[in-house]
Amino acid sequence: MELRRRILLFLVLTLCVSVPAASGEEAAEVVEARFFDPYRLFQLTIPSGWIFQAGESGADLLVFYGPEHEQLLYIEYFPEIAFSDPMVFADKVTGHYGAEYGLKGFQLLTGPFPAELDGITAAQVEYSYLGRKERTEYRIFVIVDQMGLTITFSDARPHYAYSKRQFDAILASFGWEVGK
Amino acid sequence: MRALALLAAGLLLFSAAAAAAEPGFTRFERAVGASAKERLLAAYGGEAQLPLHDYLRVKAIFDRLTAVANSGEYSLTILDSYEINAFSLPGGYIFVTKGLLRLAGGDDQRLAGALAHEIAHVVNKHGINALLRRLGLGVLVEVGKHVLEVPTTQEVHVATQALIDVVQSGYNRDAELEADQTAQQYMAMAGFDPTGIIHLLSDLEELPPSQEVGAVFKTHPDPGLRIEQLLAAVGDYWPAPQRITEEEPAVDQNRTDPLNRFLIVNRVHDGDSPQRLYTLYDQQNQEYVDWLKDLAVNDIAFAPGGVLIAGAVLERGKGNIWFWNRQGSVVECWNMGHSGQISGLYFDPNGTRLAYQVMGGDTPEIWIGYLGEITRLRLSLEINARIVRWEESGIVLRDSGGDYYRLAAPKYEPIKLSEPIPMVIERKQRLAPQAGQDVLEGFSLTAPGSPGL
Questions:
Q1: What is the pTM of this model?
Q2: Which residue of B54, B425, B428, B438 is the best one to mutate when testing the A interface, meaning the one whose CB has the most A CBs within 10 A?
């Protein structure tokens, strides 16, 4: 609960100092908020219309809803993770997702591929599965200071390609707060 | 004469085949079990898709239990049904319903109890034996012939229907009680608390009549009888006390309020009773608490953290234990009615169990009770000793000669998933913000000045 309050406070403060972008072509660039995560690991820009979901977030999970379709961004923390290689992390996780007991209708679309997130080695993967609707997710795995982190963008499959541009824009705004 | 010879031949064949197939399962068991599994899956709404974390937790419990059972190949199926039920089929097929998982809640020990019970049925061959009894001894001849071979489709078909009848009507009383005992052994061997199965049965007993519970689970045999048997055996899983070199503790554990408000004080009482009575002095209000004033309390202990206060209450010559919160409300009563005085109350370091001694005859009885549960187990000790304290390594006892002993509490290993599995979540339906559209009683999700996306 305390953490949730802290997260909300961060959001309120960061929204207060948000800077409107010069261009008005993209709504996401009109009003945006700089978000600092509660572990002080990173910051990123949350575009207009994306809303932090306090009720669904917890000590190790941050959830944002996007303004369109089924857009979803969620960030999960894994303190003191045993892996050091994000590719191993991604391989293990997709292995579980694709297992018999895993996600219904799981399909690996791309990856896991090595990636870089603001100068730190990461792994990325795209997959789809059958939830209430068929969804496609783009997930980044990264390990920093023994903390595992997955950043996941998700939308209903028909809208995923459209939403991916927003996801990429959010990811491009990502910056580490800790030493690289 | 010929029939007898055939029967004898059949039994010999079956026994030989079963022995040859140990320690796994016979082909007949696998074949008939697999066939019945398909029918039961259809009857129970198919296999449930649990959230990944939940499934992996259940599977981790299951794997730990099957690792200590015999070396057959086991499979676990979660049925998509809210009926509270669990059952097993020959060949290692174990089923639990979502209803049972919900009843067990997040308690791994309860769930381990249900799974261990079903695994025990398989290991003890209760299913296959009941099936053979139902089919008739004459069939043993044919079965015996096929145990080492692949049984025919017709044989499997006939046996499948009979097996489903067996599963739905339940095993006999002796088989159920035997499965309970075996389950307790497996739980202890696999690092679970053998009281978990007792607590699950207790939950079943307390369900409202309207709750849909598998008939087998509820009636074969009476849960009260099963609980009684399990409670009688659970103390056996505590190892014998070991003599240790120990100094008298400087501070009497659990006798100081961690929040530093209440003091345990001797109470002045009327009459010539030799018993020492205690009460609490409230340092904040500078008075004795009124919620103990009419009670004969032989001992008082503060739980770790001081949230609960336990008291040994003597009522009409019977010893019981009550628990109060810090406002003086009774939150739990253990009305055990011991004929002797209760004393020596000591909480475990987690505050989930309480050790106490009952003074009856020459030797004090040492008991362990679980908070919030029905379990009170008596430990069979061969020494005449009293409790000194309960620490991480176990309960420390001191005998009449001044020697100390440690009674190591069984270790329960919590389930930890070996690898982190990130969550996969979906948006909830209730909030579907659309830019430019007011939702939730007029709250606009559109940023001022924004045309919306």
A1: 0.74
A2: B425
